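Morning F.,

Quick status update on the modeling queue. The single chain you submitted on Monday has been processed. Sequence for confirmation:
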Amino acid sequence: MKSYYLFKKDWESELRTRYAINALAMFILVTISIIMFSIGEEKISEYLNGGLLWVVIFFSAMSGLSRVFVSEEERGTTMTLHLIASPATIFTGKLIFNLVLVFLMNFAITILFLIFFDSFIIRNFLLFFIAFLLGNIGIAISSTIIAAIISKASTKGTLYPVLSFPILLPLILILLELTKFSMDGNTVSSSLIEILVLVCYDVIMITASYLLFDFIWKE
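Structure tokens below.
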């Protein structure tokens, strides 16, 4: 229950300031506009469109999800959180906030790609939905624990992309493969290995995050 109230606090604060929402919206609009102007009348392959989708999602996550713990440090509310909630509760509340933000962000990006890029055609929506769901969960978990790590560092701005790239790269590569399969119309059963890899990634990241966060938060 405390996790819910922590999420509610962060969400209401975000609705007042709109820092992450505005940063994400501007990044998404600018990036997609640049891609469209760069392509022009050229026809690009379906697979390249799928790759561009996850590139935009990856860099959008880096621009908008890194402040979930940094904002607590800047406002000086970290000590209050230490006193009122356990580390697991705090991490869960922050994770829920990032999950909501990630799903809203990536849903908007996907809809824009479907509207503006004619060659972005999904032939198996179930497979794409599974990849989208598991991929977003993995991005949210990874981004939350990375944000916790950088909140304790002095160089917060540069450290996030440095840490997120090697952690999120395996996830993005699997998502690219599954997106390609969904564009080809492959069945879910034929892509089971890749789906299981995604599940394993999410399970490993959530387990490692809860184990590590206790040490990070008390540092």
